[in-house]
Design goal:
Radius of gyration: 19 Å
Shape: flat
Strand order of the largest sheet: 3-4-5
Order of helices and strands: EEHEHEEEHEEHEHEEHHHEEH
């Protein structure tokens, strides 16, 4: 049979011989990561931090590349930034390699992403960077082949149970400190015990360009997302991932009859796939 793979903005077919749904997924996970390679989105070290926000808003990580790989920034690097006009080169950015060889498999890419807590990797070939791959692209490949995969784990059993709330009226600075303390990337904003919105790193970095350092003094409800999709906890994890992608969101709380069951995120989806199929 053939599966369809997203390659950049195009779709190409890839031949796969299979016998069972489990073997289907395992064969897909063995496809070389270069099949999913797309143009690298990167910043240079002479960029200001404000200029770097565009790349960060999409993937929470921005690669610093100038002829060769130099390092990366995360949204967390903005938390203690004294001036948004500071150059990237003046920031103590991480120099750890966030790369994968082009001949490595999709499965190996997923494991690296989960181990290094990243949604993106630079793809290298003979030590030269030839492109990049995002977690969304990998999951989209699996989603396009869903009809051949048989049973897929449900979202209900693969939620992040760390539910951290912050009261309306608190500042963004308070929220960021709470995120750092609890090691989470989403807060549920509540008023009189009712959830009225969510605040994530996505909202933070999108607003940083407007508020700069003053962002930390803003009330959390000023930046929170009040309208987020309602998700059936029993849909499978690939369908849930599709909702995240369509809504351009990384985290969505799953709430049923005012009861918060947990947080849906693509990291948990990836863990579930690798665990379920014994990768």
């Amino acid at each position: 049979m053939f599966i369809i793979i997203k390659h950049g903005i195009n779709y190409v077919t890839y031949a796969v011989n299979l016998a069972t749904p489990e073997s289907t997924l395992k064969r897909i996970l063995k496809i070389k990561i270069k099949e999913l390679s797309k143009d690298l989105e990167s910043i240079k070290d002479d960029f200001t931090m404000i200029e770097a926000t565009g790349s960060l808003a999409n993937s929470e990580i921005a690669f610093i590349v100038e002829n060769n790989y130099k390092g990366y920034l995360r949204i967390e690097d903005f938390f203690n930034l004294d001036s948004p006009q500071k150059k990237v080169v003046d920031i103590q950015y991480k120099k750890e390699k966030m790369t994968i060889d082009s001949n490595k498999s999709i499965s190996e890419a997923l494991k690296i992403m989960l181990n290094k807590h990243t949604k993106s990797l630079c793809i290298t070939e003979k030590e030269s960077i030839i492109g990049m791959v995002n977690l969304e692209d990998i999951l989209q490949t699996l989603r396009l082949s869903k009809q051949n995969l048989g049973f897929i784990p449900s979202s209900r059993n693969n939620l992040d149970k760390r539910i951290i709330k912050i009261k309306k009226g608190k500042s963004v600075g308070d929220g960021i400190e709470l995120m750092k303390e609890k090691n989470v990337k989403i807060l549920l904003v509540y008023e009189e015990e009712k959830i009225i919105g969510i605040f994530t790193l996505h909202e933070f970095i999108n607003a940083y360009k407007q508020y700069s350092a003053k962002i930390f003094d803003q009330n959390i409800e000023t930046l929170m997302l009040s309208n987020f999709p309602k998700i059936d906890p029993d849909i499978d994890i690939l369908e849930a991932k599709e909702i995240l992608l369509e809504k351009d969101m990384n985290y969505i709380p799953v709430i049923i009859h005012d009861e918060i069951l947990g947080i849906l995120n693509i990291e948990k989806i990836s863990e579930a796939l690798l665990s379920f199929f014994g990768e």
